[in-house]
Amino acid sequence: MRFPGRRKHKHYFPVNERDPLLHHAGLDVPEAKIHVVGIDQTLVDIDARVTDDLLARYELPKGGSTIVANDRAAELYEELFSRKQISHEFAGGTVGNTLHNYSLLADDASILLGVMSDVIRVGTSGYRYLSNTSSRVNLDHLQPVDGPIGRCFALVTPDGERTFAISAGKMNDLRPQSIPETIFDRAAALVISAYLMRGDGSEPMPEATRQAVAFAKARGVPVVLTLGTRFVIAERPDFWRTFISENVDIVAMNEEEGEALTGIADPLLACERALDWTSLVLCTAGPTGLYLAGYTDDAVKRATRYPLLPGAIPEFNRYEFSRPVLRRDCPNPIKVFAHIAPYHGGPARITSANGAGDAALSALLHDISANRYHRARVPSSAKHIRDFLTYSSMSQVCRYANRVSYEVLVQSSPRLTRGLPEREEGLNEEAYWAM
Fold first, then answer.
1. Which Pfam families match (predicted)?
2. pLDDT tens-place string over residues 36-67
3. Which CATH class is domain 34-42+92-151+169-433?
4. In the β-sheet with 162-167, what is the strand arrangement from edge to edge?
């Protein structure tokens, strides 16, 4: 397990070597096996540059996410292909993207649950999905299906707006009995998306998702929900507030999804409102940057050494050097917030924003799993005087998530194609290590 953030050294401690003192005393700690579990609609992202006229002809609401029939999707693909409007085809899915990025950052295992075509031919969607997924993502538990996986068209108009058209294929056919209970025993988190709970009741995916959530909750594994798009949440915001309150520990969203969930446009206030239902909120807010909101116990709060920031909540980052704790584990919970502006002011040119939020979430998951790993290896460490959720402070997690998100913004793929550099110029090492 690599440890998160930009560090002078690759590891916080030699994770591949046994503690010499414990070894001498005959008390070697066994190797800790930590992984992240995710459920996703297995699909391939098809990125294309189109005109508003094409959206109108295919009756696709601009900026929305629409389910289209398989034959209609084939017609759309043929038109885009013949007109040479397709720029890229990648393995996709918000949870699949997140797990791929997590395994690349952590150099460690994750487990993906979903479906996969029983018969795979070169060039098909299933082939592209498997060939573009990190080998550290365990696909052994995918449920075979007789038919294609999904295709998601990301149609970008000249004004930069993204419109999604999704051909479901068999991607929602995951059955509850295909969720293996034992994989949650050593899990650091379960990641799900709002897309999984859509449907008219004819497909088993929502019930399979609830089964996985039940397994995770029974073992105290944090449940992470990424909201998908604002349209999914706006369809039934009351349902999502109740679902989050009853099942979810961490919510990942952008400012539009936050507004759909809370009714509040300001991302900081939306994060604060979401804390009424969950324990930690990650919110990407485009050119404004990235927010992290959560709880810590009053006895272990840590004041920032950075300038206090103005906002809808004055000086909201006062305790951003604190480490988050699940609200149920805080005797005296207080709300804490952190923020960071886009890395280097943001890329000079954004190739595609698709997957940037997934990248930020993967960094947060890396920090969470690193904390679980360290606690298993060094349980007596002062890092674990409380049952903290992350290894690093909220400020540090923001820095890490922001940096990983930047890497996706400057490339075409929604998934990381390489890790972060070990060392970067201009780093204030003393301040960095102090977090």
1. PfkB
2. 999 999 988 888 999 999 999 999 999 888 88
3. alpha beta
4. 65-68, 162-167, 150-156, 43-49, 86-91
Three-class DSSP labels, the chain: CCCCCCCCCCCCCCCCCCCHHHHHCCCCCCCCCCEEEEECCCEEEEEEECCHHHHHHCCCCCCCEEEECHHHHHHHHHHHHHCCCEEEEEECCHHHHHHHHHHHHHCCCEEEECEEECCCCCCCHHHHHHHCCCCCEECCCCEEECCCCEEEEEEECCCCCEEEEEECCCCCCCCHHHCCHHHHCCEEEEEEEHHHHCCCCCCCHHHHHHHHHHHHHHCCCCEEEECCCHHHHHHCHHHHHHHHHHHCCEEEEEHHHHHHHHCCCCHHHHHHHHCCCCCEEEEECHHHCEEEEEEEEHHHCCCCCCCCCCCCCCCCCCCCCCCCECHHHCCCEEEEEEEECCHHHCCCCCCCCCCHHHHHHHHHHHHHHHHHHHHHHCCCCHHHCCCECCCCCHHHHHHHHHHHHHHHHCCCCCCCCCCCCCCCCCCCHHHHHCC
Both tokens assigned to 55: 């959206």
Instruction: At 233, give phi and psi (nearest 5°).
Output: -75, -40
The full set of domain ranges for the chain reads 34-42+92-151+169-433
Closest CA to 414 of 367, 357, 363, 333: 357
- Condensed to tens digits (0 to 9), the pLDDT of residues 367-404 reads 999 999 999 888 888 899 999 999 999 999 999 999 99
pLDDT of the residue at 270 = 98
Please give the Cα distance from 117 to 44 (Å, whole number). Answer: 13
Residue 154, strand partner residues = 47, 164
| Sign (positive or negative) of CA dihedral 379, 385, 390, 395 | negative
Q: What is the CA radius of gyration of the chain?
A: 21
Q: Which residues contact 304 (CB under 8 A, 6 or more apart)?
A: 317, 318, 319, 320, 321, 395
Range 57-78 average pLDDT: 88
